[in-house]
Design brief:
Blueprint: E1 3-6, E2 11-13, H1 16-25, E3 29-32, H2 40-43, H3 50-59, H4 61-71, E4 75-81, H5 88-95, E5 99-100, E6 105-112, E7 114-120, E8 123-129, E9 133-137, E10 143-147, E11 153-159, E12 168-169
Antiparallel strand pairs: 1-2, 1-8, 3-9, 4-11, 5-12, 6-9, 6-11, 7-8, 7-10
Length: 177
């Protein structure tokens, strides 16, 4: 279940109702998938073979297709990051700059944890994601994604057009790490 930390007040939202209501108010889609569907071998596994990735996609095929049909996503894949990922620190530095996209940024967490930092009307907030959490950050919304302290995540990503999914820097003098 996702948790939210509002950066300018340090307030935390932890109940499903609080999180869902807050994200809806900011135009951010939030859903939850049933992780009991996922085989035990993939629940805390971060070095994935192509077969493992296909199993994740197959397990959540109904959920993926439902979301894709509702939001016009055409492609999806699985990404896995952990300390075993080559050049992880360099990759995270690239992720950790505030940016926007010309389409939604969608993640469905299937293992590990991640944080989306998103700019809302009253400043930035952190959405701490756990397995089962699904989030879609709207097009042109300033944000960035990074890992939590455990530095490991597996996520399904959905795209309208993955070849056009590019981060465009967003300079914001109000942003504080």
């Amino acid at each position: 279940m996702a948790n939210i930390r509002i950066r300018n007040t340090n307030e935390r939202l932890t109940t499903e109702q609080e999180v869902s209501s807050f994200l809806t108010k900011h135009g951010v889609l939030y859903e939850h998938w049933d992780m009991n569907k996922l085989s035990n071998k993939l629940r805390n596994h971060f070095l994935l073979s192509n077969e493992d990735k296909e199993e994740i996609l197959s397990t959540f095929d109904d959920e993926i297709r439902s979301l894709a049909n509702r939001r016009s996503y055409k492609e999806w894949d699985v990404v896995a990051l952990s300390d075993a990922t080559p050049n992880l620190d360099e990759l995270l530095k690239k992720f950790e700059n505030v940016h926007v996209h010309t389409e939604d940024e969608v993640r469905a967490i299937t293992a590990g944890n991640g944080i989306f930092t998103i700019k809302g009307g009253d400043g930035y907030f952190d959405v701490e994601l756990s397995p089962g959490d699904v989030i879609s950050v709207p097009v042109n919304t300033p944000h960035f994604f990074t890992l939590m302290e455990n530095r490991q995540v597996v996520a399904v990503r959905l795209f309208i057009d993955s070849s056009g999914w590019v981060a465009h820097p967003y300079e914001d003098p109000d942003f504080k790490r």
